Amino acid sequence: MVFSSLLQRSEVSGRGVLLALPLGFLLALLTTLYPLPGMALGVGLGVVLALSKQPQLLMIPFVISLAIPIQRTFAGLPLNATDGLLVLWCLLWPFMLQREQAPHLGRWRVPLLVWAITPFLIATCLAQIGSIAQGNSLKQILRIVEWFMVLPVLLMIFRPQPAFWRFAALTMLLVPCLFAIDGLYELASNGTRLTGMLGIPVPIPEGDMAQIRHTFDISGRAGSSFGGAQGLAMYLVMTMSVAIAHLLISPRPGLRLLAGLCLLVCLGGLAATKSRGGLLGALALVLVMLVVFRPVLLRWLVLLGVLAALAGVLTIAMLPNWDGTIADLVPGRPEAVLDRLIIWGVVFDVFKDNPLFGVGLGNFRDEFFARGVSLNVELGYSSLHAHNTYLEILADTGLVGLLGYLAFLLTVARHLARRWRERCGDDAAVFTLAAIGTLAAYMVFASVDMLLLQNMHFLLVLLLGLGVSDSRADAVGLKVSEPEQMA
């Protein structure tokens, strides 16, 4: 056993020498001819080698890039920094497998998220049959594959050990604070962003900027590098689940204290967004996590919910100036409510015409404009969605697609609940609880926004992937391999 181990190490060293010789010669030649590009390539190669040995370091720029949704079009495909990092992650995959702490290939299984999303992915492919814009639908299908299949497979490179959980916790606690502080500064400085001073622009669609209703100069709502307040709100709420989980069950007092401080910062940033959807998502996240943590609270929450509903009905009934319409219940934005009612009406019309497979994933906007429907608030640029993920999926992929999407949510929720019941009180349980809260917040966001148009799914899949990880399986594998190492 010792001889075979030494022989294996010598083979790895031999491959390293064979790789180092030509690369070293090329770098030396390039540096001699072109000093700056040669030195930049050398530094880049060093970073790549460091990432291949410590792949968790890639999580830091990855989580940061999720809050910088700047897109560039390449060969007709909209790409951003997150996509580039994902490509780098794929290219480094063979090198990551060579490190000592890499998981053993014999214990790999198809990730839960991959087979859970498969029915919905099949439904999106079937929707291509009646798609009114097949190229646009194909782009969205590739996004689904990237979010729910590629990323879960790449996450399998991590061995869930205590050091990894600590690193993941620090990343998910500290990085969101940067953008929360940016939002607070944006609100305090009347629109000036720290990220903007660093040269990071916000994604602004083409058209008349005066018609864009989501930037700070129009709405007064902080959006940080997202530009739109809703994007920052969703980012902060979904990452706050890690801080709340550490406050509730963290086995490490230091991380619990840090989680409390980070949660205060993120709550401040959430307040700066003035997002109703963000507030609803945060309430759902906290309530679900508390009920899961203390099931006895459920009866009290149900009672409070019934009382709140009765109080709300009585309050609305006694409003002296209420004209009986839904739009009048939203002060200052009745036209936005009316527009949503118009859009939802078109959704059901599209569904009636295409009940099974819809008009193709991501094509509701084109179908809406083709029907010549007018809104009270014109955006000034060709962009529209149903303000509800469930309804837009119904229009895009029909009843088959909606059932596949709901099946994905239900499957993941049941698996997280089972994993929580089997918890061992370790760091993995913290992320399981955080994933449960994140899924609850996501489902609420889906009722007020169209999430399939956003890269927020990267963050969702990252947290869900960590939540369904099982450190105990890896621990068993380590115990089995200890006698071999001793031999």
Automatic annotation (TrEMBL):
Keywords: Ligase, Membrane, Transmembrane, Transmembrane helix. It is a multi-pass membrane protein. It comes from the Bacteria. The chain crosses the membrane at residues 20-50, 81-98, 110-129, 165-185, 232-249, 254-271, 277-293, 300-319, 393-416, 428-445. The keyword Transmembrane helix applies. InterPro entries: O-antigen_ligase-rel_domated (IPR007016), WaaL-like (IPR051533). Pfam families: Wzy_C. Residues 262-406 form the O-antigen ligase-related domain. One of its GO terms (molecular function) is ligase activity. GO terms for cellular component: membrane. Its main location: membrane. It is found in: Membrane. Signal peptide: none annotated. The keyword Ligase applies. This is O-antigen ligase family protein. It comes from Aquipseudomonas campi.
